[in-house]
Amino acid sequence: MPPKKVAIVNYGMGNLFSVKHACLAAGLFPWITDSPAEISKADALILPGVGAFGEAMKILNRLGLSTVIREFVEMDKPVMGICLGMQLLMTRSFEFGKHEGLNIIEGEVVSLKEAFKPGENFKVPHVTWNKNKTPEGKSWKGSMLDGMANGQYMYFVHSYFVTPRDTHVVLSSTQYGGIVFCSSLQYKNVFACQYHPERSGPAGLKIYCNFANFIQQMSLGGEYVRAS
Amino acid sequence: MTKRLPHPIRVIPRLDIKGPNLVKGVHLEGLRVLGKPENFARYYYEQGADELIYMDIVASLYGRNNLLHIVEKTSREIFIPLTVGGGLRTIEDIRGILCAGADKVALNTAVIARPEFIREAVTCFGSSTIVVSIEATKHAGEKYECYTDNGRVPTGFDAMEWAQRAAEFGAGEILVTSIDKEGTGKGYDIELTRQIADRVSIPVIACGGAGRLEHIRDVIVDGHADAVVMASVLHYGYIRDQTSERKDFTEGNVNFLMSKQGYSKVQEVALDEIKTYLANFDIETRRKVHAS
Question: Which ipTM did the prediction report?
Fold first, then answer.
């Protein structure tokens, strides 16, 4: 079977190269594109991202990428959002003002700095390897984190975090100072994470492999078991 | 027992590159050829390095940019963050190095020449991509002065004030290197690190001087570093175990390497030894977690 095509959405931000190489390591066929027509032909989509929310949304809207990403989700094709790419999936963000997001997952993007309790002057951005934990009562079996150890360290670099309205979508949480935030989520066929799996060593590559398997299953018409 | 830190500390090998070779100097000069950077990089990745730093130490002197090729090769097989510095002067230079696979860039000479460049780079690539590198020397009267071009050119910039400005301009992290301590194995400049770390609200990476395990602990506990960089202590430990490295270099001062002598100023350590040691002091680092 030929490798599955994964469109890496290029909206001028983020390190697309490392995402591409992680895809290759997982046996996928990635290509970097900003063309909605090209993206709609892909089996799966990755929304990467480093940078500012408002600026990113402007570019996604201008290039017609917002529409194609929403269509992708509606068609139940696999989507992975990474870092800013995760935040863009939400309803709105409060990074430098207020900006409307893709609104694929209901919820907001809020500042770490403002969420700290008084007296907690931790460094922002949160740049480090930190623990990815299973929320109580949840299992990663069958999810994109399948096979991952609870407490696995992943590489984070961010100043904002997502607060999904429906907490059932939360797949993992991470603690920084006194804040426990949603570090990965899964909603329908959308997986998103605040950390960078492509920079999180072998554990991160495992996520790309799970994503590759998932794309394979989806294209065979199989139904994916959602983490519950 | 130390106070519990808010986040795990990153342990970062630094690889100084000249042409195709990994080199190591003392006070950023007097270079020795150690081997091929990509081989060291792969080894450190497998050994659990949290990030890597590549510094092209002659680029800003000759304006040449040899790094692209090495960066591309490295980032294909290494899935941890890679910061690259040395001779990056323009937005196009940064774009080029990011496209080759770097995750962040370290800027010194270019941003000292024109501090606004930090803001421009942050606007283009996001603040998490931009690391401002400060190389400082201590003068009489407790003042630290910033230098550029690997410690060759004094700038008149006060290190503390400059760190603060760099953070205000939007830098995502600050890499602090003590020129006095660099390559000496006598320990980090705790004072320099702590003063900067306490003054800025962004992460500070301490670099220069690691010779023994306790130096690393000290710069975290007393210097308030968010991440620690080391070179010699790791490089010589690696060389000790490798023989193939001696065959494949092409230029530079290789006498030291050929002589197979150790480097007595530093303790030769492996990454896991560092992390195990830090764990004894309650300092969290990224460790292997086994699936239950």
Answer: 0.92
